[in-house]
Amino acid sequence: MLNGVSNNEKMILYIKNMVCDRCKMAVTVALEKLGLHPENVTLGEVKLKEEQLTDSQQQRLHAALHELGFERIEDRKARMIERIKNKIIQVIHNSGQVSQKYNWSDVLAEELHYDYNYLSNLFSSVEGLTIEQFIIRQKIERVKELLFYDELSLSEISWKLGYSSVAHLSSQFKKVTGMTPSHMKKSRQMENTRKSLDDV
User: What's the superkingdom here (predicted)?
Assistant: First the structure.
């Protein structure tokens, strides 16, 4: 099927840049405005009641998603990479805490039903960085966000994101941003350094 993946007569759309609950709501509203019937909407994936879309519906869907900053993913490898990214973003940005013992390779392999080495090689070959580097970038963006809101100490942020110590967090933060978390917080440059999740 050209316009999606059929699953028990239902159509599944894969959508890039869905990184939060607001994204899911925006996509749901856009689909409903087009007269489509989303049955289940998760990060990066929408199950429709429809079995297929007409060419006209596909064109309108493309335009509506593009206007919101999203796009359909047709390629199987691109869908897999988007699922990897969405799982990482979900854990780092939307869960309460990332344990120090969190085993990304086991979680991703189990979630996606593929060997981690395959996922890692695929991700690196397409994205030009490793899964581990992507995880670090996401953690650093989360640190920036938590620093910006100034509700947690560095020690609490370190614990929340699964760092072994504040020193480890600070070292990784400086390596990525060029400054320590404390210096960034004091300099009030955070607004200019934060990135949207789909740009990380």
Answer: Bacteria
What is the pTM (predicted TM-score) of this model? 0.74
The CB density around residue 194, as the number of other CB atoms within 10 Å, is 14
> In this predicted model, what pLDDT tens digit does every residue of 103-148 receive, in sequence order?
999 999 999 999 999 999 999 999 999 999 999 999 999 999 998 8
Average pLDDT, the chain: 87
**Amino acid occupying residue 110:** E
Q: Which residues span the domain enclosing 129?
A: 77-199
Indicate the residue among 49, 74, 99 that finishes a domain: 74
Query: Do 36 and 66 sit in the same domain of this protein?
Result: yes
Among candidate residues 86, 81, 70, the one with its CA nearest the CA of residue 126: 81
Structure tokens at 151: 């509700």
Residue 42 and residue 94 in contact, taking contact as beta carbons nearer than 8 Å: no
